[in-house]
Amino acid sequence: MKRVYKDTVLVLGCCVAVGLGISTAYVLWIQPTCFPTQYPDILHDPSLMMSTGATPMILPGVDNPNATPADQAMLSDDAEVAGIVVNGRACAFLIAELSRINSHVVNDVLAGTPVTVTFCNKNNCLKAFTSKEHSDPLPLGLGGWHGNGLILRYADKMYAQENGRQVGSHEHSTLPFAGFPVERMTWKEWRAKHTASDVVIGLEGAAPRKSDEP
Question: How far, in Å, are 117, 124, 179, 184, 212 from residue 189 at the CA level?
Answer without folding.
Answer: 19, 19, 23, 10, 25
